From TrEMBL, chain A:
SUPFAM superfamilies: Nitrite and sulphite reductase 4Fe-4S domain-like (SSF56014), Nitrite/Sulfite reductase N-terminal domain-like (SSF55124). Residues 136-288, 428-566 form the Nitrite/sulphite reductase 4Fe-4S domain. Residues 69-128, 358-415 form the Nitrite/Sulfite reductase ferredoxin-like domain. GO terms for biological process: sulfate assimilation. It comes from the Bacteria. One of its GO terms (cellular component) is sulfite reductase complex (NADPH). This is Nitrite/sulfite reductase. Keywords: 4Fe-4S, Iron, Iron-sulfur, Metal-binding, Oxidoreductase. It holds the Pfam family NIR_SIR. The keyword Iron-sulfur applies.
From TrEMBL, chain B:
InterPro entries: UCP030820 (IPR008318). It comes from the Bacteria. This is DUF934 domain-containing protein. It comes from Methylocystis heyeri.
TrEMBL record, chain C:
It comes from the Bacteria. Residues 86-109 are annotated as: Disordered. This is DUF2849 domain-containing protein.
C-alpha cells in the first residue's frame, strides 16, 4: 500500500523531458529502501547504537530535529514531474502534517515523520522514481543544477544530463561514502550562473572546448559555512569523457588528505586553502594520470543514453509575441505585475518560464501545503507538459508555459495563494528553517523573514527597489546562504538572547563575493528597521538602473556603515 | 577481535604481534609498519608475514614488500573515517594480491563498501560482533545486486548490464 | 551535595517518533510539567544515570540536562529559548507540535 494513486500514472501530458528509471535504477532504489528498513529494524532492536546508526540514517536524508525527525527528499537537479509532486502531497498528508518545505538545495523536507514510518515513506517515493539518497551525511550530496535548465535563452547546454550522470555515479559510492565532510556539486550550462557553482565543493560549467566540443570548466573549494570561500578554477577545460575519472581523482585526494580533526575545517575548501590551489591541482592531476581509466571507457555512450531523456517537449510553433498576453496585462494590473516580475524569457518563441513564489507576505519561505502542491501539479499538466522545477531560491518553476496561457495560469495560481509577484525582489527571501525546527540552529530565521516580508509588502515599492536578495541563516552553517545575500542575516546567540548579524555585498553568481559585516548584532525586532535604513540609503544614492549590489560596490562598505552609525546617533531605533 | 569473511565469522589464523613482543619462530604474524624490516630479516621465507598500516600510509612505500607479504591490515580508527577505503583501492592498484583486511570498529552496514574497495576480510572488536551477528553481515553484503560504479568489486556494474542489454 | 545554580530537568528525543520527552518520576513524559526536577548535583547525576540506561535500552536518544525555573506550583519551565521552543513546537506554526495538542485539550475542557 502506498500513497501513490496508480490512476494518475495514466494521465495525459506525461512529460518526456526528464530522466526515467530503467529496471536497474528501479531495482537499485528498491534495494535501498529494503536496506534502510533493515537498518531501522536493527536500530530498534539495539543491534546498532545511535552513534552507529546516525551516519546511515543521514545518508537516507533523515535528521533528528527539535520536535521530530525530518526527512529530506532528493529532487535531483530540481526537476519534478506532476505525478511526483502529487505523490509528495500524498506523503505530506498520510505521514506528515500536510505540508512540505522546499530547500536551497532543490530538495523537499518533511518536518514530522516518525522513524518507524520512514521505510514506508521511502517505498512510496520509490513508486514514483524518487528517493532520499545522500541528501545528508558526509558523502556526495544531491547534485544541483540551474532551475532554468533546458529552457533558458542564454543556455549553451542543458546541465541536467551531466547532473543525472553524476547522480548515478555518486549513488552508494563505496569509496566516497565516509568523506571528511559533506560534498556538494552544482552544474550550470548557461552564460548566467543560476546554480551558484562558485560556492560549491565542485562547481561545473558546461563550456565549449577548442574544437567546439562540450566539456567543463571545473571549480573547486567553494562553500559557505563558518569560513566562506569562493571556488577556484582547478581545470579550465575538462573534456566530457574525462568527467567521472577527474571527479574521482578530486574525491580521492580529498578523502585521503582532507582534515578530519575539526568538523569546521573538514570541507575541501579548507584543504584547498591550506594546501594551495597549485598543489591540489598537481595532486589531482597526478592521481588522474596514475589511475586506471579503462572503467570509464564507455562513459560517452552512457552519457548519450541519459541525455536523450532530456529532449525538448513537443512545442507548438507560435509567434514570439502574444496578443492575448498583452491585452490581459492591460486589463489586469495585478496580472501585469506578475507577468513583469515572475516571468522569464524562454528560448522558444511564444513560450515563457514562470516562477511561482513560495514567499507570500508574512509566509514561511519555501513552505507549500499539500493542496498547493496539487495545484502546482495540476497547473503543470494543464499548462506546462507536466514538468516542474524547484529553484535554490526555494520557489517552484513551470518551465514551459505558452504566453497565451499565462493569464489562465495566473488565475489558477492566484486562487491557491500562489501568485505573489515578488520573484527576485526584496521579499523573495531565502531562509533556512532556523531554530523553529533545526537542532543545530542558534536563533530563529523564519520570523525574521516574516517581519521583513510584512515591512516591505507593498509590491510597487519592491519593484521600485528592484532586484535585491536577502538571505537568512539561523546558524553559522549557512544553509540560508547569508554570506552571498546582497543583504545577509545570520542568527546567533548572544548572552542568552537571539542576536542577528547583518552583512552586505554578497553575490552567489559568477561575480561571486562574500558579504561584509555591517556592525554588531541587533535584536530580532530591529532587523527590519536596519534593512529599511540600508534600502533607503541605497535608493537615495543609486544611479540609473544600478542594482543594490552595484551601488554597494561603487560606494564601498564604509559608506553603508556610516549611515547606520549616523542613524543610531540620531536616535533611530537600530 | 572477530574476523568476518564473505559474510561469515571465521577462525583467524593470523596473530597481531605487539611491538614489544619478540618475533615468534612459527605461525602467521602481523607486525606494525615500523617492524616490517626487522620481521623480513628475522623470519624464515616460509613463515606467513603481514603488516598493519595506518590509514595515512603511503602505498608506494609499502609496494616493494608486496611479494613477501601475505596480508595487509588497514586500520579504521573510526567507522566514519573513510580513508581506509581509498587506501585499499590504492594498495590493490599497486598490485597487492594477498589478503586485504579492514581492521577496526566497522559496522555491518559497511560490508559491501569494504568488499568493493578490495578488502577480503574485516576484523572487528567483540562488542560489535555480539550486537551485529553473522546474519546481519551476510544480509548487508547482499543488499545490492549491482551498483553504479565501474571498476569496483568483482561483480558487474549497472552500466555494464545496460551495455550488454543494448547489444 | 552542592546545590545547582539552576534546577535541571532531563530532556531526550523518542527514538521511534523523535518527539521531545522529559524524564519524570515514572518514566518519560511528553509534557515538561511532569519532569522530575533536580536541585543538587546528586539528583542531577541520578537523572543522567537513568537517562544513560534509557539510551542503552534504545528508547531515547540525545539526552541532556537543561536549566529550568520553577513556577508557583513547582512545575519547571526551561530558561533557555532553545528549550522553550522544544516544549511548545515551532513558533511560526502554533497549530503544530505540543502547543497544538495543549490547545486542543484546553478546548475540550
Amino acid at each position: 500500500m502506498t500513497a501513490h494513486d496508480p490512476q494518475q500514472a495514466a494521465r495525459p501530458n506525461t512529460p518526456t523531458t526528464t530522466y526515467l528509471y530503467d529496471n536497474y535504477d528501479t531495482a537499485f532504489v528498491r534495494e535501498r529502501v529494503a536496506e534502510f528498513r533493515e537498518q531501522v529494524r536493527r536500530r530498534l532492536e539495539g543491534a546498532t547504537t545511535e552513534e552507529e546508526f546516525r551516519p546511515f540514517r543521514l545518508m537516507n536524508g533523515l535528521y533528528l530535529q527539535l520536535h521530530a525527525y525530518m526527512l529530506r527528499v532528493a529532487i535531483p537537479y530540481g526537476t519534478l514531474t506532476a505525478r511526483q509532486m502529487r505523490s509528495l502531497a500524498d506523503i505530506a498528508d498520510k505521514w506528515d502534517k500536510g505540508y512540505g518545505h522546499f530547500t536551497t538545495r532543490q530538495n523537499l523536507q518533511f518536518n514530522w515523520p516518525k522513524l518507524v514510518d520512514v521505510p514506508d515513506i521511502l517505498e512510496a517515493l520509490a513508486e514514483v522514481e524518487m528517493h532520499a539518497i545522500q541528501t545528508s551525511g558526509n558523502c556526495i550530496r544531491n547534485v544541483t543544477a540551474d532551475h532554468f535548465s533546458g529552457v533558458a535563452a542564454d543556455e549553451y547546454e542543458d546541465p541536467r544530463p551531466t547532473a543525472e550522470f553524476l547522480r548515478q555515479w555518486s549513488s552508494l559510492h563505496s569509496e566516497f561514502s565516509f568523506l571528511p565532510r559533506k560534498f556538494k556539486i552544482a552544474v550550470s550550462g548557461a552564460a548566467q550562473d543560476r546554480a551558484a557553482v562558485k560556492v560549491h565543493d565542485i562547481g561545473l560549467r558546461v563550456v565549449a572546448g577548442p574544437g567546439g566540443e562540450p566539456g567543463y570548466e571545473v571549480y573547486v573549494g567553494g562553500g559557505l559555512g563558518r569560513s566562506p570561500f569562493v571556488g577556484k578554477v582547478v581545470r579550465e577545460f575538462l573534456p566530457r569523457e574525462d568527467l567521472l575519472a577527474y571527479l574521482e581523482a578530486i574525491l580521492r585526494v580529498y578523502n585521503r588528505f582532507g582534515r578530519r580533526d575539526n568538523k569546521y575545517k573538514a570541507r575541501i575548501k579548507i584543504l584547498v586553502h591550506e594546501t594551495g590551489l597549485d598543489q591540489i591541482r598537481a595532486e589531482v592531476e597526478a592521481e588522474f594520470a596514475a589511475m586506471d581509466r579503462t572503467p570509464f571507457a564507455h562513459d560517452a555512450e552512457e552519457f548519450a543514453r541519459i541525455a536523450a531523456f532530456f529532449a525538448p517537449p513537443p512545442y507548438e510553433t507560435l509567434p514570439a509575441q502574444s496578443e492575448a498576453l498583452q491585452s490581459a496585462k492591460r486589463e489586469n494590473p495585478a496580472f501585469a505585475a506578475f507577468a513583469e516580475v515572475n516571468v522569464s524569457a524562454h528560448k522558444i518563441d511564444g513560450y515563457a518560464i514562470v516562477t511561482v513564489s513560495l514567499k507570500p507576505t508574512g509566509g514561511i519561505p519555501g513552505d507549500a501545503t499539500s493542496a498547493q502542491m496539487r495545484v502546482l501539479a495540476d497547473a503543470s499538466e494543464k499548462f506546462g507538459f507536466g514538468e516542474l522545477r524547484v529553484s535554490h531560491e526555494q520557489n517552484i518553476v513551470l518551465p514551459h508555459v505558452k504566453k497565451d496561457d499565462l493569464f489562465a495560469l495566473w488565475r489558477m495560481l492566484d486562487a491557491a495563494g500562489l501568485a505573489t509577484a515578488n520573484v527576485g525582489l526584496l521579499t523573495d527571501i531565502i531562509s533556512c528553517p532556523g531554530l523553529d525546527y533545526c537542532s543545530l540552529a542558534t536563533a530563529r530565521s523564519i520570523p525574521i523573514a516574516q517581519a521583513i516580508s510584512r515591512r516591505f509588502k507593498d509590491e510597487e515599492r519592491q519593484r521600485e527597489i528592484g532586484r535585491l536578495g536577502i538571505k537568512i541563516s539561523g546558524c553559522i552553517n549557512a544553509c540560508g546562504h547569508h554570506h552571498v545575500g546582497a543583504i545577509g542575516v545570520l542568527g546567533l546567540e548572544k548572552k542568552g538572547q537571539e542576536s542577528y548579524q547583518i552583512t552586505l555585498g554578497g553575490d552567489p553568481s559568477l561575480s561571486a563575493s562574500v558579504g561584509e559585516l555591517l556592525g554588531p548584532g541587533v535584536g530580532a525586532d530591529q532587523v527590519a528597521d536596519v534593512i529599511e535604513h540600508i534600502v533607503d540609503f541605497y535608493l537615495s544614492e543609486r544611479q540609473g538602473e544600478e542594482r543594490f549590489i552595484d551601488t554597494w560596490r561603487r560606494l564601498g562598505h564604509a559608506r553603508f556603515k556610516d549611515v547606520l552609525r549616523r542613524e543610531g546617533e540620531n536616535g533611530a531605533d537600530i | 577481535m572477530a574476523l568476518i569473511s564473505e559474510g561469515k565469522f571465521v577462525e583467524d589464523e593470523w596473530r597481531h604481534l605487539a611491538d614489544e613482543e619478540d618475533l615468534p619462530r612459527s605461525g602467521k604474524i602481523v607486525v606494525s609498519q615500523q617492524r616490517l624490516e626487522e620481521a623480513l630479516a628475522g623470519l624464515g621465507p616460509e613463515q606467513g608475514l603481514g603488516v598493519r598500516l595506518p590509514n595515512t600510509a603511503d602505498p608506494a612505500a609499502i609496494a616493494p614488500y608486496f611479494s613477501r607479504l601475505s596480508l595487509i591490515a588497514i586500520a579504521f580508527p573510526a567507522f566514519t573515517d573513510g580513508r581506509g577505503f581509498s587506501l585499499a583501492r590504492l594498495v590493490r592498484r599497486a598490485g597487492f594480491k594477498g589478503e586485504l583486511r579492514a581492521s577496526g570498529r566497522l559496522v555491518a552496514d559497511q560490508a559491501l563498501h569494504a568488499r568493493q574497495c578490495g578488502f577480503d576480510t574485516i576484523e572487528i572488536p567483540h562488542d560489535i560482533a555480539q550486537r551485529q551477528n553473522e546474519a546481519q553481515w551476510a544480509k548487508a553484503l547482499g543488499s545490492y545486486a549491482e551498483t553504479y560504479q565501474e571498476g569496483y568489486g568483482t561483480r558487474g556494474s549497472i552500466l555494464e548490464r545496460r551495455r550488454k542489454a543494448a547489444l | 551535595m552542592a546545590l545547582l545554580k539552576n534546577p535541571q530537568i532531563l530532556i531526550a528525543s523518542d527514538l521511534r517518533d523523535g518527539e521531545a520527552l522529559f524524564l519524570g518520576a515514572d518514566g518519560w513524559a511528553r509534557d515538561h510539567k511532569s519532569a522530575a526536577v533536580a536541585r543538587d548535583s546528586q539528583e542531577a547525576a541520578a537523572l543522567e544515570a537513568r537517562g544513560k540506561g534509557e539510551i542503552a535500552a534504545n528508547r531515547v536518544v540525545d539526552v541532556y540536562l537543561a536549566d529550568v525555573g520553577l513556577e508557583a506550583d513547582g512545575s519547571p519551565t526551561p530558561l533557555h529559548y532553545r528549550e522553550k521552543m522544544r516544549i511548545k513546537g515551532p513558533s511560526v506554526r502554533p497549530d503544530l507540535g505540543k502547543q497544538a495538542r495543549a490547545a486542543q485539550s484546553g478546548d475540550a475542557k
